[in-house]
Q: What sequence folds into this?
């Protein structure tokens, strides 16, 4: 379905959303495996070129038109090409109808979805067979969930977008992956006020992503003990899905 990425030695990888959390851990994991890394986020200070030797810092804001394109131009000027691009930039604010905050919702969708489309438009012409583009979405994008106004719909759109791209690019040997993590302990999930089942460390998440990229599948989801339940729920008809989700989440 997708190329199997197993040998990282000398592979040129651009991570967008790499200053903290899962992206920072993925940078460490890939650097250990011999990849060359370009790291993007808004905070230049967070891009830690000292921790990831030889990394190319490319500060950018995915919500600002032209910012990703300028970073891509700097990347090509430095490297001449790129094998894998990974979109991890994301934002999350738990939101229910009683605290629905439209400016915050628009900001979340701009980072979690519009930025990903903008990235695809920016790098599509640079992708080559054997490499490709991966998008970090979430199991929160499978179906509607409580407290997930804005976050859930943005992630659902991202999964759908990745599916559309995959249909077109996979026959040309260009990989398109969607990554759907369960709960990972980062500054984003620190905003949750509920117990998170099967919570992973960022290092666990990075290792699961690397394993998934080696497997040749389209979707990389983890931890399986949690994501398989979410998948099962997502297949249910609404009359079963809504009461079960309310029961499990108290929502
Ligand atoms: N943690 C989880 O349980 C979980 C579960 C499922 C999916 N995810 C997804 O995994 C991805 C990484 O999240 P995380 O949990 O590791 O959170 P995180 O630590 O907050 O990382 C988010 C990254 O995105 C960058 N970013 C945010 N806004 C940006 C913007 N406008 N332009 C460029 N970069 C931006 C941040 O850096 P700056 O702030 O410096 O820009 C940071 O590097 C997100 O897409 C998230 O939705 C997380």
A:
């Amino acid at each position: 379905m997708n190329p199997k990425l197993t040998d990282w030695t000398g592979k040129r990888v651009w991570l967008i959303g790499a200053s903290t959390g899962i992206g920072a851990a993925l940078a460490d994991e890939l650097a250990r495996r011999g990849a060359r890394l370009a790291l993007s986020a808004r905070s230049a200070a967070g891009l830690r070129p000292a921790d990831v030797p030889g990394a190319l810092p490319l500060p950018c804001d995915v919500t600002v038109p032209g910012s990703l394109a300028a970073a891509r131009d700097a990347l090509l000027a430095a490297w001449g090409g790129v094998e894998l691009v990974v979109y991890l930039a994301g934002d999350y604010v738990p939101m229910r109808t009683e605290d629905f905050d439209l400016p915050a919702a628009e900001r979340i969708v701009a980072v979690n979805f519009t930025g990903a489309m903008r990235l695809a438009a920016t790098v599509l012409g640079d992708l080559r067979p054997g490499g490709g583009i991966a998008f970090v979405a979430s199991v929160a994008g499978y179906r509607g969930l409580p407290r997930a106004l804005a976050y859930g719909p943005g992630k659902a759109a991202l999964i759908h977008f990745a599916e559309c791209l995959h249909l077109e690019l996979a026959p040309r040997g260009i990989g398109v992956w969607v990554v759907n993590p369960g709960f990972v302990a980062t500054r984003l999930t620190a905003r949750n006020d509920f117990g998170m089942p099967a919570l992973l460390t960022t290092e666990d998440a990075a290792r699961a992503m690397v394993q998934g990229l080696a497997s040749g599948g389209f979707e990389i989801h983890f931890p399986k003990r949690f994501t398989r339940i979410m998948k099962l729920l997502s297949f249910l008809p609404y009359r079963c899905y809504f009461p079960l989700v309310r029961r499990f989440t108290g929502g």
